[in-house]
Amino acid sequence: MGLLSEKDRKYLIDLFAKELQNNVKLIFFHGDDCEYCDLESQLLDEVKELSDKIIVEKYHKDSEEGKKYNVEYVPALIVTLEDGVDKGVRFYGIPSGHEFGTLVQDIVTFGKGAKPELSPETIEKLKKLDKPVKISVFVTPTCPYCPRAALTAHNMALASDMVTAEVVEANEFFDLSEQFGVSSVPHIAINRNPDRFFIGAYPEPQFLQQVLELSE
């Protein structure tokens, strides 16, 4: 039985036919003793069938590709253009529930050329970054506010080569969530520092301000 309903399939086939101008590559990483890897693999197989512009590649975390993309946990998903160049857009954990919508929007954004959907002011400030910034957005499938934070972070990664934005499914990575003191979502940690975080789906200007201040 498929994970996507027939209604969702029809909607997404139509959406991708209208919106995708370029090929989009979804690079999936699995590993040993990975509870959700098979499920995410099945989900991506179904997504691939929705458009001939969606390419899915699958690798083991310990493969050369895993090292190339610096994959730390599984399941992992990296979204790129067809050339496979890492734009810093990542998911750790299966993008289900509300987060499936985040993946769909990412596919559309990359299908239009991976241009950041941010204000010119935000893009200008991000281009001035001179040191790497990692944004970790902890989410859950049932959180209706999480996609806004996740997409803002992913768009910031598209705006600057200095930014990597990872969306982490908090329930799947319980130990990591505990390490970062995640008690409510979206919980946004900066540079993997448990003491540098903010909580909530802030509007873009405030989100940027938090990222810049906490990364100093």
TrEMBL record:
CDD domains for the chain: TRX_GRX_like
InterPro entries: Thioredoxin-like_fold, Thioredoxin-like_sf, TON_0319-like
Ranges where the Thioredoxin-like fold domain occurs: 134-213
Xref: Gene3D superfamilies: Glutaredoxin
Protein name as it appears in the record: Glutaredoxin
